[in-house]
User: What shape does this take?
Amino acid sequence: MQSLNVLIVSSHKSKYLEQIKSSKYLNKLYVTSQEEVEDTIQLTFNTFKELAQKCRTLEIDIVLAEEEKWILEGISNVMKQNHINCFAATSDWTNLSLSQNFARKMLGKYGINLPPIITLPLEFPVLVKGDGILKKANSMQEIISIKEKIYKTSGEISKNIFLEECLKGEKNKIISLFDGKHLLTFPHEKISAILLKEYSDKLEKMLLNEKANFIGFINSELIEENGILYNTGFSFGFYMPNLELFQTTCPKDILYICLSAIYQKLNEIEFTD
Assistant: This one.
């Protein structure tokens, strides 16, 4: 049995400490949280390069990047340069959450459903969207007011503002793990397995065709309406699915799944109904 040294990169106490501690594959658990946590070893760092050097010295096998802001700042790129297994999307793919224009073009290319763009609203509310912008408007006057405020803040951002239909379904977060060859999407209690597989297959095709080269979690925000799944955004970071659902549908623990991702064998992980 492989024994792993694991680092959780987060500024706060991880929600998943107990699940990782209970893994039979764990040897030592390191954390960057400033809070003292029993049975863990605390690491501090000033730069990602410094953290990578410490990982190499301590022979850390897996880095789980839980802090989204550090993923957006490129922790995965630095770790990859130092040949460290870091579970985080590289900076080119974090554009899925940072750039509305990039995301809509990329998802549209692979047939992933997106909420319709509205030219002239006939009913309200509608969403006013752009890079870093998400506002709900209940009238034309609110749309004008929001656009004016954005223009005063950044004329450049205001050029890419658009209106989007406000879907009425419930928003759900779907967790997927990519290993460079396969995408494993975890079951969700509110979305049917058929719809989820259809979405996951399209997302996997996109990543493979666009030659994505990272190991990491991609968290999709989806709304189901009239039997169709719509993508409304992405977030990045180490998240575990609903723990009760995970334990009843997957016989493997989370570090086993991480090992499978390192060896590009996520296609061998099966979930039960």
Observations:
- The chain has eleven helices and 13 strands.
- The first helix runs from residue 17 to 21.
- The chain has a mean pLDDT of 93.
- The chain has three domains: 4-87, 95-113+169-268, 117-165.
